[in-house]
């Protein structure tokens, strides 16, 4: 039987509204993504952007730490790191102690830290702030994402030029003429709770209106197709593209179903990373290693994709922040450092730039729950072989807060303009409503 794809799932279910919510719009399977390549080079000859979103609002002050600043220790005495705990960067700043891989890249001048990044008139709402970051429109709401507008500007718009790895399509990839693609990681199925609800709602009832009967029937179709889709995924395609559920390779390729270098398969890594976190997700997902693993395979296959969007949730640390954030940053560090270490040996990997951001930082002052509340400015990380390492932008002063928040010293559109200009070969002003200022990290 042909491997189910998310598009076939939508067609077979006959439930367009529910299907689109499940699949996230323009949906493709991992096999389709990998089959789009020619095996000769990822994304043609241009640069490749991997955009990592840390959903929930990462605390920038405990990521790039001003450990020597007395204002820092006074504002959060129980959350503060000591000078002997952080990984030194210079200028009286240090990285969170869980970010040893990033520190190694810093010493190799392959990590850029852009400081004090936010937008004019910051908003403490997750949804409004993330909408601003994804549309690059701080003054007024916009119907398209900044990368969606970049897709629209291509001579041959193609959803697979920019993809999001996971079940939903983020607004950043929504264009007016074409949107990016949501690429399944192999687990695109209804959660068990929804499966149960849909089964009950689909049960036949006597004496109900014909339209209600029709709605119930479509929910039944959704359940049946979902079950078939999930069963087929579990078998694996075994064709070397979709691969078995252990590692995406054909079964028997290395005799054990594990990666040849001894790494955990994406599903094995998911078992650890899907454990509940103290911090709320606010839109992100776990399984970063699995997402990056698919990016790596797509690069190796020569997929025509120029932009990959991946995410990690859990950064809404209103309580018990220190341990939670340290664990999450350690996961980010481990997964991204391993990914960059593997791809740097390839031709495609030499053209990859990774950008890491969150919708906002946290308040300077700790709250009563040993956490921090929604704040404003924070750091953005740029990593990869093309990156010119170092600090960019000024460190916000803890002695000159704005209503208890850090001031913005770098407009987030400066980062986007640089990525558009030097990675995606596009005039920034066309995409960012005239904003053209760039930074020197590339």
From TrEMBL:
<keyword id="KW-0732">Signal</keyword>
<feature type="compositionally biased region" description="Basic and acidic residues">
    <location>
        <begin position="241"/>
        <end position="266"/>
    </location>
</feature>
<dbReference type="Pfam" id="PF07394">
    <property type="entry name" value="DUF1501"/>
</dbReference>
<feature type="region of interest" description="Disordered">
    <location>
        <begin position="230"/>
        <end position="285"/>
    </location>
</feature>
<dbReference type="InterPro" id="IPR010869">
    <property type="entry name" value="DUF1501"/>
</dbReference>
<feature type="signal peptide">
    <location>
        <begin position="1"/>
        <end position="29"/>
    </location>
</feature>
<protein>
    <submittedName>
        <fullName>DUF1501 domain-containing protein</fullName>
    </submittedName>
</protein>
<dbReference type="InterPro" id="IPR006311">
    <property type="entry name" value="TAT_signal"/>
</dbReference>
<dbReference type="InterPro" id="IPR019546">
    <property type="entry name" value="TAT_signal_bac_arc"/>
</dbReference>
């Amino acid at each position: 039987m042909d491997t189910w794809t998310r598009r076939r799932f939508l067609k077979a279910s006959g439930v367009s509204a529910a299907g689109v919510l499940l699949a996230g719009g323009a949906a493709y399977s991992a096999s389709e993504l990998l089959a789009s390549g020619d095996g000769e080079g990822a994304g043609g000859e241009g640069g490749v952007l991997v955009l990592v979103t840390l959903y929930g609002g990462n605390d920038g002050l405990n990521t790039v730490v001003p450990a020597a600043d007395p204002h820092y220790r006074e504002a959060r005495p129980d959350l503060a790191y000591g000078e002997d705990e952080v990984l030194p960067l210079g200028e009286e700043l240090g990285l969170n102690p869980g970010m040893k891989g990033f520190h190694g890249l810093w010493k190799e001048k392959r990590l850029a830290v852009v400081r004090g990044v936010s937008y004019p008139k910051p908003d403490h709402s997750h949804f409004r702030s993330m909408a601003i970051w994804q549309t690059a429109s701080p003054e007024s709401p916009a119907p398209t994402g900044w990368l969606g507008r970049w897709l629209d500007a291509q001579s041959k718009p193609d959803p697979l030029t920019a993809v999001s790895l996971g079940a939903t399509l983020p607004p950043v990839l929504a264009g007016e003429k074409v949107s990016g693609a949501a690429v399944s990681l192999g687990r695109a199925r209804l959660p068990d709770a929804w499966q149960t609800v849909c089964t009950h709602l689909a049960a036949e009832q006597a004496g109900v209106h014909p339209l209600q009967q029709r709605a119930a029937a479509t929910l039944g179709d959704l359940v049946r197709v979902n079950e078939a889709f999930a069963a087929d995924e579990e078998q694996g395609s075994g064709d070397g593209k979709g691969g078995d559920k252990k590692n995406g390779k054909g079964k028997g390729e290395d005799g054990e179903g594990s990666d040849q270098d001894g790494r955990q398969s994406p599903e094995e890594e998911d078992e650890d990373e899907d454990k509940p976190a103290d911090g709320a997700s606010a839109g992100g997902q776990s399984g970063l290693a699995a997402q990056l693993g698919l990016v790596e395979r797509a690069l190796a296959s020569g997929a025509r994709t120029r932009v990959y969007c991946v995410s990690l949730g859990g950064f809404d640390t209103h309580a018990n922040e220190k341990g939670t954030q340290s664990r999450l940053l350690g996961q980010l560090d481990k997964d991204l450092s391993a990914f960059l270490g593997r791809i740097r040996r390839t031709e495609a990997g030499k053209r990859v730039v990774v950008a890491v951001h969150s919708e906002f930082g946290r308040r300077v002052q700790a709250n009563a729950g040993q956490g921090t509340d929604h704040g404003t400015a924070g750091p953005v990380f740029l990593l990869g072989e093309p990156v010119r390492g170092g600090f960019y932008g000024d460190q916000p002063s803890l002695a000159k807060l704005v209503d208890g928040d850090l001031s913005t010293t770098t407009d987030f559109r400066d980062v986007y303009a640089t990525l558009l200009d030097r990675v995606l070969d596009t005039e920034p002003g066309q995409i960012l409503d005239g904003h053209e200022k760039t930074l020197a990290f590339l």
